[in-house]
């Protein structure tokens, strides 16, 4: 994990080096301060009265050292904070960019809210840990080494006593950290789980209200939230124990220094060749405080450090996910006419549960292929395999005689346009949403596509027409309007192969008639795959595939299948 952190900090090493240099200089100046403070105290308690010249000189130097140290102490964390912000920005960019390369399987097995939490909250935790702890760790080492050296020079006996007591605070901190690390990891996991539940409920809030499931949704939220509260309370309590425990040990150390110094002074024992004066005792007490301060500071940010490591582990898990295989060396799929052939295809989402065992199908350019069958029969799976959202375990899919595994995925997917049952619109104008995937489209092309989709009329009636802002995933539009915009988007892309997955499910019967006319224009001369539950909408298809258990159990035209009085005939007459 440390190497993973350093990889990102390396890009901001100049700022970090300057920050560490400032921290080192600040620590050095603060180490010199107690010496002059002790001399100032001795000047006040001199036998012949106050030595004003010596007092003024030492106080002036003391002010210069502490002022300079304070300025450097301000600049050092400021620079480290900027470096941390840059590192976290890189982490967030790399993680999101990696997410975009992951196969669809990753998203099918993850709560989207948990992934969002990792990109947002976990990155913030890493920033808090880096910004607060990095300089403190370095300056703490410098301060501890410097003060211990100075104390040994002044009084080896007192320094040895402090050195014997200090490990106790380190042992306490280590004991607590080891036992709370698991709790902080669990806290981040529960935070992601809570985010996933919230995202899930908000995305289906209409269904929640429709079924009066508000109480059930809240109860589930409260359950996860209570679990987060319990594990969070235990983690924070454990983390909060470190600071007071170490402070108690350090106070004991402080008392020992004072008592030993007083005893040495009373006994006439010298320190560093000097008589143990009040000023020397004050210097040792100041060093004892400085020696304890970095340990207390590190203990104080232990919670942020542990949160940062727990969050880093969650982000690294995503970055370690295997992306789609690199296909940069493969060829391009160009001049696509639309011929599609599936030969002896085998596929399963789970190895021990075969879904498609031997799928065969052939479509000529310009054919309309309808895919029907019961839910879970494999209709959408065929689409996923055509688009290479998943790769088959056997057999092959050919586009115009070219195996899809031998071409780049982008060039393959550019040959398809899709209209799905679940519409997806992003925050932006109507124009931007229609032109998604074709960013260079002109206004004329956009309006033509909207007209073919029978969306132009309702768009003109919107407050700002094509410049109307769509918000919250299209919440300010009806379901039918959202569907029409996605249909217009597909028409604009003008790809040689179309996939329509219940594309008219969200429009009313009257609108559907217009959309079907638009589809007729769109599908002219193009190969089209239509997944449909309403069988009346696909009677015109050149080929109807009846899919059950992942395999084609019947295929033919509407008339041929009705004459067979087989599975399609049963589906057509079901419920009559």
In short:
This protein has 576 residues and is an alpha/beta fold. It has helices at 2-9, 13-44, 52-101, 104-108, 112-154, 156-203, 205-210, 214-267, 278-300, 302-319, 379-386, 409-413, 430-434, 443-452, 456-460, 479-493, 509-523, 558-564, 567-573; strands spanning 270-271, 274-275, 340-347, 356-363, 368-372, 394-399, 402-403, 416-419, 428-429, 469-470, 497-501, 527-531, 543-548, 551-556.
Task: Provide the descriptors you would attach to this structure in a database record.
19 helices, elongated, four-stranded antiparallel β-sheet, ABC transporter transmembrane region fold, six-stranded mixed β-sheet, 576 residues, Rossmann fold, 2 domains
Explain this structure.
With 576 residues, the chain is α/β, with parallel strands linked by helices. It has two domains: 2-11 and 78-319, Up-down Bundle (ABC transporter transmembrane region fold), CATH 1.20.1560; 340-573, P-loop containing nucleotide triphosphate hydrolases (Rossmann fold, 3-Layer(aba) Sandwich), CATH 3.40.50.300. The chain has helices spanning 2-9, 13-44, 52-101, 104-108, 112-154, 156-203, 205-210, 214-267, 278-300, 302-319, 379-386, 409-413, 430-434, 443-452, 456-460, 479-493, 509-523, 558-564, 567-573; strands at 270-271, 274-275, 340-347, 356-363, 368-372, 394-399, 402-403, 416-419, 428-429, 469-470, 497-501, 527-531, 543-548, 551-556. A six-stranded mixed sheet has the order 8-11-12-5-13-14, sandwiched between helices. A four-stranded antiparallel sheet has the order 4-3-6-7, with no helix packed on it. Strands 1-2 form a two-stranded antiparallel sheet. The protein is elongated, with a radius of gyration of 36 Å. The mean pLDDT is 79.
